[in-house]
Amino acid sequence: MFKRERSAFSSNAASVSPFESLDRNPVEFVEDGKLTRRTFIKGVGWITVVSALGGAVAGCAPKADEELEPSESAQAASDATEYSYACCSYNCTSRCLLKGHVRDGKLVAVEPGEMPGRPDYANACLRAMSYIERIQNEDLRVMYPMKRIGERGSGEFERISWDQAIDEIAERMEESKSKYGSTACSFYSFTGNQSKLAMQSATRFAACYGGTTWDIEGIMGDHGASMGMKMVYGVIRGAHDTRDYEENSNMIVIWGRNLADTHTSELRYIVRARERGAKIVYIDPRFSSTATIADQWIPIKPGGDSALALGMINWIIQNDLHDKEFLSKHSCGSLLVRDDDGTYLRGEGDAYMVWDVVQGKAMPADTEGVEAPIEGSFEVDGVACKPAFVHLREAAAEYTLERTSELTGVPVGVIETFAQEYIEAKPAGIRMGQGMQRTFNSYQSFRTVATLAAVAGYVGVRGGGASHAGGTKANKPVPGETAPEFNYDEWAETGQKANMVKSSLIYQCAVNHDPVPIDFIWFNVSNFLNQSPDAHRIIDEVFPNISTIVVADPWWTWTAKYADYVLPATSLWEYWDLYDRAPWVFLVKPAIDPLGESKSDCEMMTMLAERVGLEEYWPKTPEEWVRSWPNPESSAFEGFDFDEAVKVGMWGMPTGIYDEPLIVFEDQVYQTPTGRFEFYTESMVEFDEQVPKHTPALEASDSELAAKYPLMHLTYHDRMNVHTQHCDNPSLDVVQTEPLFHINPIDAEPRGIKHGDTIRIFNDRGEVKMKAFVTEGIMPGVTAAQAGWTPEHTVEGNHQFLSHLTLSPAEEHYSQTNSAFNDIMVEVEKA
Ligand SMILES: Nc1nc2c(c(=O)[nH]1)N[C@H]1C(S)=C(S)[C@@H](COP(=O)(O)OP(=O)(O)OC[C@H]3O[C@@H](n4cnc5c(=O)[nH]c(N)nc54)[C@H](O)[C@@H]3O)O[C@H]1N2
Ligand SMILES: Nc1nc2c(c(=O)[nH]1)N[C@H]1C(S)=C(S)[C@@H](COP(=O)(O)OP(=O)(O)OC[C@H]3O[C@@H](n4cnc5c(=O)[nH]c(N)nc54)[C@H](O)[C@@H]3O)O[C@H]1N2
Ligand code: SF4
Ligand SMILES: [Mo]
């Protein structure tokens, strides 16, 4: 495919980085469609990793110290060490505070930072602790602004100056603007760094320019959760502090959430809950790291979650164990629904109505003292109506134990026992994860599992709930407090507004100019190509229709290979930034000098603003922005001293927020249209999806396709990597250097596939080659590989050659399609 002529990292270039001189030589970093692996490691050649308990576990001292006695050496080292803090704001749910040890201008070790008010919470993982080697590796970093000189994708770049880069980019933006209007210039920030300046600078610039930004959650595959949550709770997030399970849950159901790898800071509370006697049930097609701490692993067919929850709902209702009081008072269960058009019956002032048995007539739902039934059939002014619960009960009745078993692959007896233990646990808490939403019509699983909790009466109850996200992030209002915690007004003032478009439509915007023509894209904090569905479609159709592609990234990525300009961004140890993670605020100052000529995203946008006459909106340096944000008027910042806070990397808000584990919906107030927990969604009537139901996976239910490609393939988030960011971490090469393809012996044997064989995984869209990992830890008929690994790490290709972006009419109607990354069928053979 992409033939290498000269490699940036080939042995003849080994003594000097090709990016070091301005000799205008093309830089090749592509070999056979893969980024070439480095052949040597420069920069810091040594590393000390300090364990979570604070002890040094590995390391060797710098040369000068080697001549000293060990004790003197340690003393000298510690005297010379300065400490600096960073927020690990990669998109890993933990967002840990990191304490960096800096010596002679280099980061030499990282350990967990202390968390005021929550000494139990300090956390950092091997990824972040060893990452300093990748950060300080000049051969992996983008060191200078680079301009493409070969074909797109050829990987041929030359070094240019910042001035030239920004001048030319500004010129090309203005060209696209003059052809199609300012919205043709788009700024795509994904999730690569969630700190405020890194994440928001480019999209803020888009607003100032009148450009386009993207509502990224759809294409990213995390939007099913938001849709499902919003339908039932009215808000897209809502969770119990994990300490609540530790203290109050008798059963904890971890549903499609591999938190032992993906939310490491929370695992300790789950383990302690189990030690206290709570039963841990884990639902996943895969025996993941989290399954190892569970009492029970329930393997489930991917996309089967809504069916399992409906089967349990049905069993609970059939056994008359549902919480009628909760359903009547706090859910939509008692609200009357018209038989004729499926809308809620409205009374005077558009009031939702319930049936008053005593008076024998319909009354507004908020009438005091009415005990509204959730069953029955009534006539109101000639209109036949039923309480919404009847619709749920009838829909759930189709999910008998036998049918549920067929749809989920879970044996009848397991479903029945699980339903019984769940309803008897009083309470049981459910923690939902992203694995539940990676099939077509992804919102169904979240809304259905949450509805199971509502039927059980566990919503808003300590130790209960059906939570998405979770952990500690919560806001606890202080009585009488009105001042905002942050002064964001100036940052929010952008003159114009950005044109925000659903990310599910990005391919068609580039190719068909529908609904907006896109001609220029600036990617930052995004490895777009590696992390979005259907990579062939992006390479062959989307990118060729964009006239200018800019990538700002600290590292060379697969996406950067297709860029016209690659700009060196700073890493999280090299910039000023702020991360609001209530009850804490992380304040980050540079621990080391930026490598090469790298600049922060804010600095880049400030330079670009100067070129296009928008400098009035970018008057501050990054440090000045960060200093301007904490609001001393707010009680959250009482006693705050910026410089003191920066010294310890953070500020803990003194507003009593650590006192007890917070839970959501305790007040039974929901921001849904009805103000109640809402399993009956009026806006979905036209899709016949007003109440939760199971919609089967798209490709698996296509029998012709399934005959050709019989295995359902899923990708999951892995302990080795936060998305694409740690696979090229030299220190972790001793653990794993490539993604592995998990396959059950029942599927491997007939295909002659043995553990370690190189295999070809393919469907009509493309193929990838990886090594087989034959294991009973995955259900027969299902295969899995870690997401995030880039083409240079597979034997050949990339997992996104297999995936697809198929728009779902129901999801587009409600908000936007969620990438169904796991809704794909494949076949495998020995390569
Ligand atoms: N098949 C499949 N695809 C998936 C998923 C899956 O499970 N399966 N998961 C999806 C999910 S949930 C998500 S959230 C997305 C994540 O997708 P991305 O957000 O693209 O993933 P990352 O690799 O974390 O980050 C992108 C880039 O940000 C860069 N970066 C880091 N810090 C900075 C900075 O300060 N400035 C700049 N300019 N760049 C920086 C990193 O070097 C990296 O190249 O992927 C989605 N894609
Ligand atoms: N180490 C690490 N941590 C991370 C990330 C990372 O990349 N690396 N990414 C962060 C981000 S942005 C996200 S979105 C989260 C994602 O983290 P999680 O919520 O844990 O999501 P996944 O890893 O995608 O899937 C979780 C589990 O669901 C299983 N699964 C797949 N399909 C199904 C299904 O249909 N039903 C059920 N019940 N289970 C299924 C998978 O096998 C997997 O073990 O992690 C965050 N934390
Ligand atoms: S990668 Fe995740 S768990 Fe590791 S230090 Fe960063 S935020 Fe914490
Ligand atoms: Mo995500």
UniProtKB/TrEMBL annotation:
Cofactor annotation: Mo-bis(molybdopterin guanine dinucleotide)
Keywords of the record: Iron, Iron-sulfur, Metal-binding, Molybdenum, Oxidoreductase, Signal
Keyword Oxidoreductase: yes
Domain 4Fe-4S Mo/W bis-MGD-type: 81-139
PROSITE patterns associated with the record: 4FE4S_MOW_BIS_MGD (PS51669), MOLYBDOPTERIN_PROK_2 (PS00490), MOLYBDOPTERIN_PROK_3 (PS00932), TAT (PS51318)
InterPro entries referenced in this protein's UniProt entry, alphabetically: Asp_de-COase-like_dom_sf (IPR009010), MoPterin_dinucl-bd_dom (IPR006657), Mopterin_OxRdtase (IPR006656), Mopterin_OxRdtase_4Fe-4S_dom (IPR006963), Mopterin_OxRdtase_prok_CS (IPR006655), Prok_Mopterin_Oxidored (IPR050612), TAT_signal (IPR006311)
Listed PANTHER family: OXIDOREDUCTASE YYAE-RELATED, TRIMETHYLAMINE-N-OXIDE REDUCTASE
Similarity comment: family membership: Belongs to the prokaryotic molybdopterin-containing oxidoreductase family.
Name this protein carries in UniProt: DMSO reductase subunit A
Organism per entry: Raoultibacter timonensis
